[in-house]
Design brief:
The protein is α/β, with parallel strands linked by helices and 191 residues long. The protein contains 5 helices and 7 strands; from the N terminus they run βαβαββαβββαα. Strands 1, 2, 3, 4, 5, 6 and 7 form a 7-stranded mixed β-sheet that branches. Helix 1 crosses helix 5 and helix 4 packs across helix 5. The protein is globular. The structure holds inosinic acid (IMP).
Length: 191
Amino acid sequence: MKIVFATNNAHKLDEVRQVVGDKFALVSLRECGIVEDIPENEPTLEGNALAKARYIYERTGADCFADDTGLEVDALGGEPGVRSARYATDGHDDEANKRLLLERLQGVENRAAQFRTAVALIMGGKEYLFEGIVRGRIATEQHGEGGFGYDPLFVPEGYDRTFAQMSAEEKNAISHRGRAVRKLAEFLQNL
Ligand code: IMP
């Protein structure tokens, strides 16, 4: 079964392919001819995920899903949240985003945070939402070379290593996106 995943991020595509397995052939945006950036202007992760899925569906008519992820830091009232990609600048400047996060948390004792992913699926024209959360804390400095985004700063609960110090399999087993996508995969398998 073919399903479009609304991303051109190779890291994400790999992560999600590993979780979904062979039963579904994931097609990236580029592979279905969408090269432009899809607007993400909604105030919530769910809103953005749905907006992206609807954008694809309206143009291709294909079954598709989209995700939106935010890093929600307790001491910052859930920031950067839906603005995680554009925290420091209008672009996707990971280094600047991590620097700003460390700055905002300087001297802050409560470093609890969570990654939250919303996945919106459009299948047969119907819309469905799935959510995945992983709790953890923000380290005081970066550790590790793997992963992407805020991974070198995020230590999941029950671990003393950041996501960037884990293999893709280890991260997937506990991550926000892994959890949300496993819910999606279960749903698809039970169709
Ligand atoms: P997006 O909505 O999934 O594109 O992600 C929004 C922001 O969160 C971007 O700055 C990403 O780098 C960051 N992000 C998303 N997923 C992860 C992750 O698994 N680890 C670290 N950062 C992530």
